[in-house]
Amino acid sequence: MTELGATTEPGRDAGLAKKLFIKTFGCQMNVYDSARMADVLAPLGYAPAAGPEAADMIILNTCHIRDKAAEKVFSELGRLKPMKLARARAGGDLIIAVAGCVAQAEGAEIQRRAPHVDIVMGPQTYHRLPELVARATRAAGGAGGRGILDTEFPAEPKFDGLPEAAAPQGISAFLTVQEGCDKFCTFCVVPYTRGAEYSRPPADLVAEAGRLVAQGAREITLLGQNVNAYRAAGPDGRSWGLGRLIRALADLPGLARLRYTTSHPADMDDDLVAAHAEVPLLMPFLHLPVQSGADRVLAAMNRRHRAADYRRVVDRLRRARPDIALSSDFIVGFPGEDEADFAATLALIEAVGYAQAYSFKYSIRPGTPAATLPDQVPAAVKAARLERLQALLRDQQAAFNRAAVGRTLPVLLERAGRHDGQLAGRSPYAQAVDVAAPEGLLGSVVPVAILAARPNSLAGRLAAADRQVPA
Ligand code: SAM
Ligand code: SF4
Questions:
Q1: Is the pLDDT confidence value at 15 over 50?
Q2: What is the three-state SS of the chain?
Q3: Cα 189 to middle of ligand 2, angstroms
Q4: How many angstroms is it from 360 CA to the middle of ligand 1?
Q5: Which region among 35-39, 157-161, 277-281 has the lowest average model confidence (pLDDT)?
């Protein structure tokens, strides 16, 4: 979960300034969307608020992927109710908006359970925020909500209606290149909440990436629910896939690193795999969800690949870039998963070997095909399987981190570290690295001798520049 204050244009009339607080739940795409919502509201005079108490408007940018994620939003709304009431009693006003995937999936339910919410808007409509805020401002304020709902999938792509990013994202920036999903995995809400696949034009992306670099970004992570399904007409009149886009972005002067997430195994085409061999800026780390190692379960999930297909994709990637490190998503306890299926997942993990991974208990999502499947797995069985799976993944991550000790890795220094005099950064393999270094090195890629491995991070010291290994 991340929190973000809005920014305002330099030189705005401070007297007009209102305060905006955005709380972001869920994935990196939501983090990017929150930054863009702040950009949309900056021209209206909304400046960052340090916390919700100081805000004139609060946006919860929500995630619907699992039941727990959605329930967190209702708890948060419960906490905001007395704040809105107190503000109204004092003669003030607080606009509360719910954005993102919970808003899309449960718009009417939010208005029923939390009538103090003023604006409910889906992920495809935040370019209309100025109009929605104007409607809310015209309506009477107070302790009750204004009941504004916009969960359409508009014909005009929202990216065309967004202003250029006003606020620098920092040294490591996100760039959404693709949205939506046409895969319809039977457990997943994304095709319903984010809509059909859409890829942004390459020229827009090269321009936006150039602005990010001009604002100080050294690393850009290309985002999409299905990022490697990216396909759009290039300026050369040809159809560009993600590999071609990566090659174009790699030419941007000043950019040091590129990453992309999240990929589907079935969309890993030859050009993208080749980019891992040929583009030095493309980091040797890939999040490639597999969900299960059992073909029976993969078929019931409608994943469009078998375990062996996934293994073949991994082999192709490793031939292209032998040191590539992998991450994945796993779901345990999908309806009908038995002990043999679960053992097949453990076997796949043993065979592939992961540097890190995310794993979840299957969570029923109303409206998805798997929600009504027979043979739902009991909660205790799911919990026990998750524990076994996570123990294996933890061991693999610890071993991967231990293997870095004694090596010198190029680290992009991104922010202040945990202790005074320390900076924190990432290795090419996405490991967090702490190192004693002067602040002036922020934004540099420096060689770091790795001295120690912790379960989730590494510690090292600056090494002589001539010992840097290229990556
Ligand atoms: N598009 C990506 C893919 O192809 O896997 C990831 C999409 S989703 C935002 C992130 C992860 O949430 C999924 O990979 C899956 O492991 C998990 N997930 C999605 N729906 C779930 C559900 N109903 N129960 C448990 N985990 C779920
Ligand atoms: Fe969801 Fe499957 Fe699409 Fe990923 S590929 S977003 S898991 S439907």
A1: no
A2: CEEEECCCCCCCCHHHCEEEEEEECCCHHHHHHHHHHHHHHHHHCEEECCCHHHCCEEEEEECCCCHHHHHHHHHHHHHHHHHHHHHHHCCCCCEEEEEEHHHHHHHHHHHHHCCCCCEEECCCCHHHHHHHHHHHHHCCCCCCCCCEEECCCCCCCHHHHCCCCCCCCCCEEEEECEECCCCCCCCCCHHHHCCCCEECCHHHHHHHHHHHHHCCCCEEEEECCCHHHCEEECCCCCEEEHHHHHHHHHCCCCCCEEEEECCCHHHCCHHHHHHHHHCCCECCEEECCCECCCHHHHHHCCCCCCHHHHHHHHHHHHHHCCCCEEEEEEEECCCCCCHHHHHHHHHHHHHHCCCEEEEEECCCCCCCHHHHCCCCCCHHHHHHHHHHHHHHHHHHHHHHHHCCCCCEEEEEEEEECCCCCEEEEECCCCCEEEEECCHHHCCCEEEEEEEEECCCEEEEEECCHHHCCCC
A3: 8
A4: 8
A5: 157-161
Distance in Å, CA 182 to ligand 2 centroid: 8
Q: Is the CB of 129 under 6 A from ligand 2?
A: no
- Our answer on whether the CB atom of 264 is closer than 6 Å to any ligand 1 atom is yes
224 CB under 6 A from ligand 2? no
Least confident segment among 4-13, 30-39, 305-314, 352-361 = 4-13
pLDDT per residue as tens digits for the range 152-184? 887 777 788 787 777 788 999 999 999 999 999
**Per the confidence metrics, is the pTM higher than 0.85?**
yes
Instruction: Output the CA 10–ligand 1 centroid distance in Å.
Output: 40
What's the confidence (pLDDT) of residue 246? 98
Q: Which atom of ligand 1 approaches the CA of 264 most closely?
A: 4
